[in-house]
Amino acid sequence: MARAKRHYLPGHIWHITHRCHKREFLLRFSKDRRRWLQWLYQARKRYGLKILNYMVTSNHIHLLVADDGGRDVIPKSMQLIAGRTGQEFNQRKNRKGAFWEDRYHATAIEEGDHFFRCCAYIDLNMVRAGVVNHPAQWLHSGYNEIQWPRRKNVLIDCEKFMELLGTDNYDQAKRDHLGWAAEFLGNGGWDDKWTRSIAVGSKEFVDKVGLPEQLLSSRSPSQLMLFDTISAPVMTAHWTDISGVSA
């Protein structure tokens, strides 16, 4: 089967997910998760990747980034991180074969409530899996860095994070972030639209994203789903073959 074309849609927040090959637990050891984070840091240094949140689990990763218009920043970053992580693992284990699933998946996220809730969804990944009781207990995630910023090897773009929250006070940003996680812990909002969709936001946002007409026309009505989970309706366009943001 031929690959679906990728489409570059600039100027959005993107929630990226990438799974290990056949969902194997290739990141089950903390040293491998740390190496993924070290290459994420290199992507930020080399390409200026604007990181808003992240989560490294035992068999997949979540990455929340802001695209400020650099067409190649995200694809080059993902190529670097995924390629080097897989290469190092295979060399160390004397292993051959794919480390990752063929393509990562990217979902455009609307700013405001949708961004806040997606951030909390990422934070609580290992809580949903039953591995920990609170996101602070999982070390390989952005939750702890947002709450207790690093002095070196910084990953989270605090300025962009505060800009999206509409504040110039980082203590306020931390309190807001803490509140999102507490809200999700309380109501169990484990909706998978954040990982299965092309775009998550209001109908106006999805229209603005401008999903290519040929993609929409090739999907059945059941794949364009309406969620009423926030104050306004949330339109999500499901098409899991779209897996990146580069052309």
Describe the structure.
The protein is of the alpha+beta class and 247 residues long. It has one domain (13-238): Transposase IS200-like (Alpha-Beta Plaits, 2-Layer Sandwich), CATH 3.30.70. 41% of the residues lie in helices and 16% in strands. It has ten helices and seven strands. It has helices at residues 30-47, 73-93, 113-123, 125-128, 142-147, 158-165, 170-187, 193-196, 203-209, 213-217; strands spanning 13-19, 50-56, 60-66, 105-109, 197-201, 224-227, 234-238. The chain has a seven-stranded mixed beta sheet, sandwiched between helices. Helix 3 (113-123) packs across helix 7 (170-187). The protein is globular, with a radius of gyration of 17 Å. The relative contact order is 0.18.
